[in-house]
Amino acid sequence: MPESGETSDLEAYMKFARYLALLAALVFACASSALAASPEKVLVPKISSFDFFVDYSGSMAMKHAKLGKDKIVVAKELMTAINAKIPALGYKGGLHTFAPSSEVIAQGPWDRAGYEKGIKSLKSNFDIFGRLTPMSQGFEKALPYVQNMQRKAAVILISDGEANVGMDPVTAAKAVAALKDVCIHVISLADTAKGQATLDAISKLSPCSVSVNGADLLNNEKALDKFVRDVFYDEQAPKAAAAPMEEVIVLRNVQFALNSAKLDASATSILTEAARIIKANPGKKLLVAGHTCNLGTDAYNLKLSDARAKSVKDFLVKQGVEASRLDTFGFGESQPKYDNGTEQGRSMNRRVELSFR
After folding, report:
1. In 3D, which of 295, 300, 289, 297 has the Cα closest to residue 330?
2. Is the pLDDT of residue 212 over 90?
3. Between 20 and 30 A from 130 (CA), which of 19, 171, 252, 253?
4. What pLDDT sits at residue 33?
């Protein structure tokens, strides 16, 4: 029978098993937390402001050859769909028409609901006859408000490209495209080669231009998503968080002579720094785990490792760490990290580790 106050081998191993179960649970919880915390990409705005610049001419009241709907109806459907997908990243927005030129929504903080209301206010049953398309004049009248748009700015032209009054629309568009940090994007509702050629020439004025076919956007959600992403935002991986403090501090140079739990001078200097780190992270409890090499019996090594852990705890308490934050346990020779077949490996296995809990 063991002497009074001694722990039997069975009790020691039962205590050892309980700590192993606790550590396994902690490891599982940390792994699960890491998996659950996998962050999504962060959306970063490409632009600060945008403006839909909508062709409101007579030809837009004609049916689109492919879609069988009036082109102005298609334009409204497209703007509604895009508006629903714009991420809330603090944009300023506006909505203007040309042929005739009008301000439907003045440049200001973009609001999804307000913008939808503005889109709906556009008429789609206007007369065709006598409603010509002075696209060049539209760009000329757009220049002053585009100049005042917050940079970077996107002008999103929605048109069939028809222009039958005034100067060359491409020449007029150059003045807008030449503004610093302004990009003209094109959504084409053209159903003639001439109209498409005009829109292609306008899109080429801006190296950053995104030029798309309106029918493709309306019938393909992936294409719509891509357009919104290409014009409005980038996706970036989130900035790496500061590396968390290591959960296990291995006191690599806090080793012990064979059959000893006494700390030497080099060990105390290391433990002084460890105490500083622990005190800088209040509120966390720690397990002070002692370990041995494989020389000696299992029962003896359990006791020796426990004594080593308590020796480290006593020193940390003297350095100002609250004793209530420190639990000790001896693992004996059960968790070697180094080769017990060499003297150097055995020396390194006679160690203490601190685990935050």
Report:
1. 289
2. yes
3. 171
4. 37
Measured in degrees and rounded to the nearest 5, phi and psi for residue 284 equal: -95, 135
Rounded (10°) CA dihedral 48, 43, 224, 196: 40
Query: For the chain, how are helix, strand and coil distributed in percent, rounded to 5?
Result: 45, 20, 35
Is residue 105 within 8 A of residue 118, CB to CB? The reply is yes
In order of their start, the domains of the chain are 43-236 (3.40.50.410), 245-356 (3.30.1330.60)
- HEC string of 278-318 equals HHCCCCCCEEEEECCCCCCCHHHHHHHHHHHHHHHHHHHHH
Cα atoms in the 13 Å half-sphere on the side-chain side of 104: 25
> Where does the chain have alpha helices with state H?
9-36, 71-85, 112-120, 135-147, 169-177, 193-203, 214-219, 221-232, 265-279, 298-318, 343-349
The candidate with the shortest Cα–Cα distance to 157, out of 178, 173, 181, is: 173
Q: How many CB atoms lie within 10 A of CB 296?
A: 16
Residues 6+ apart with CB under 8 A from 156: 50, 51, 52, 53, 185, 186, 187, 231
pLDDT digits (tens, 9 = 90+) for 247-270: 566 565 565 656 767 777 667 777
* Cβ atoms of 173 and 205 closer than 8 Å: yes
Nearest one of 298, 303, 312 to 263, comparing CA atoms: 312
Predicted TM-score (pTM) above 0.70? no
* CA dist., res. 124 & res. 64, Å (int): 13
Q: Which two tokens stand for residue 283?
A: 């509120």
Please check whether residue 326 is in contact with residue 317, taking contact to mean a CB–CB distance below 8 angstroms.
yes
Residue 298 confidence class, pLDDT cut points 50, 70, 90: confident
Which tokens in the block code for residue 322? 């609250």
Euclidean distance between CA atoms 135 and 150, whole angstroms: 24
For residue 188, give both structure tokens: 């084409």
**111-140 confidence digits (pLDDT tens):** 899 999 999 999 887 666 555 667 878 888
